[in-house]
Amino acid sequence: MNKPAFTRTDAEERRRLLIAAATRVLARDGASGASVRAIAQEAKVSPGLVTHHFGGIDALIAATYADVSAAVTAALDAAVAGAGDDPRARLSAYVAASFAPPIADRALLATWVAFWGLVIARDDVARLHDEQYAHFRGGIEGLLADCGVPPAACRRSAIAITALVDGLWLELCLSPEVFDAAEARAIAEAQIAALLDHQAQNTHRSP
């Protein structure tokens, strides 16, 4: 009798298998449907494997949040790195990547919605959320600083851009028939250009 394929994988591959299954369950069934049994069934493994590798559902959900966040970060970082050395082009690449696969994806949105509910219910997920969004904002702050935005203005400008991009991303994923990625980029770019022009004017007026 053949043994299940998962018994031939190492511990890290089993963890990856379970995290991928948890991501699919969260996207399909939401946080309320993400149980040890449901995730084990999705991964085609025994429920005991979840406990063995993560100790329980809470740790698996936290690991899944971190994994999804890391995938988004990797996509953004790759886009920025591929844009060359021009600061404005790098900022534009960050924005464009937010409205393109794998980030502009309804399954990813569904997973994030599940996580957002857990941010309110669980302190550990709330901490992960705060850390991840601080990382996103920090990345934008660095891009803005490279574009010449004064340090004192970088934080609020980054918060504004994060909110703008997140809002457009949300609507693009929810209602792709209303506007497309190109329009989302154009809207974001227009607002960012106005913000950068405003900051430049304020800098020139400063004594």
Helix content: over 70%
> How big is the Rg?
20 Å
State the CATH superfamily name: Tetracycline Repressor, domain 2
Overall strand count: 0
Order of helices and strands: HHHHHHHHH
Which shape, going by the Cα principal axes? elongated
Uncertain ranges = none
Q: What fold name stands as the CATH topology?
A: Tetracycline Repressor, domain 2
Largest sheet: none
What is the overall number of helices? 9
Can you identify the CATH class?
Answer: Mainly Alpha
Query: Taking all residues together, what is the mean pLDDT?
Result: 91
Going by helix content, strand content and strand pairing, the class is mainly alpha
Distance, first to last CA: 81 Å
Can you name the CATH architecture? Orthogonal Bundle
Organism: Sphingomonas lycopersici
DNA-binding region: 35-54
GO molecular function: DNA-binding transcription factor activity; transcription cis-regulatory region binding
Keywords: DNA-binding, Repressor, Transcription, Transcription regulation
